Amino acid sequence: MRMRELALAAATVLLPAMDAVAGPVPEPSGYRTENYRAEVPDTLNGARVVDTPEVVTLWKEHVAVFIDVLPHTPKPPELPAGTVWKDKVREDIPGSVWLANVGYGVLNEEMEAFFRTNLERLAGRNRQKVLLFYCQEKCWMSWNAARRAVEWGYRQVLWYPHGTDGWIAAGQPVEKAVPLQPEILRR
User: How far apart are CA 124 and CA 69, in angstroms?
Assistant: First the structure.
């Protein structure tokens, strides 16, 4: 047992040191297409990265459109009749719009159209409207979605890399969210 305790103690000391050696995550040249729950860059070219205190201020002042891009898994169509399905509850920053599944690195035609259409609607066709993208902490989905918005010409894109995890850790309120989804996913 003593050997196991020593190994755990060594891992506790070495793992943070290894993280410090690894350094910051560089921005990729394209979208992240796998391992979405991992360390994220500190920057997003064309967007502004915001921290929790600034997000709280933006929320209180109703200055930005808050867009959650966490994926949502719909009920599998092949479930046998009578099988009980319970959606996972998503607690969100109040007033947010949950555009589920738009943060993947590759979007099919329908999902891209869904994302574009909803951004236009949420921004009131105003490319200067402040759009704040988030997901969870260490989640590339929000980075990908914010990057797409920048590439599509939105000029006031904010990225909140701490997402709901940072929001909740700061003691801020949450509410149960329901995802908007394209018609093709509702069948």
Answer: 19
CA angle (141, 51, 174) in 5-degree steps: 70
Q: Which helix (H) or strand (E) segment is 140 a member of? A: helix 140-151
From CA 84, how far away is CA 183, in angstroms rounded? 23
Every domain of the chain and the residues it spans: 40-75+87-186
Give Cα 58 to chain centroid, integer Å: 17
Banded pLDDT at 78 (limits 50, 70, 90) = confident
Q: Which helix (H) or strand (E) holds 35?
A: none
Q: Which residue in 136, 141, 167 sits closest to 54, CA to CA?
A: 167
Q: Which two tokens stand for residue 35?
A: 């391992």
d(CA 58, CA 56): 6
Q: Please write the tens of the pLDDT for every residue from 12-46.
A: 444 444 444 567 899 999 999 999 999 999 999 99
User: Does residue 3 register a pLDDT over 80?
Assistant: no
Q: How many CB atoms lie within 10 A of CB 43?
A: 16
CA distance 177 to 98: 7
pTM reported for the whole predicted model: 0.83
Mean pLDDT to the nearest integer, 144-148: 98
CATH number for the domain formed by residue range(s) 40-75+87-186: 3.40.250.10
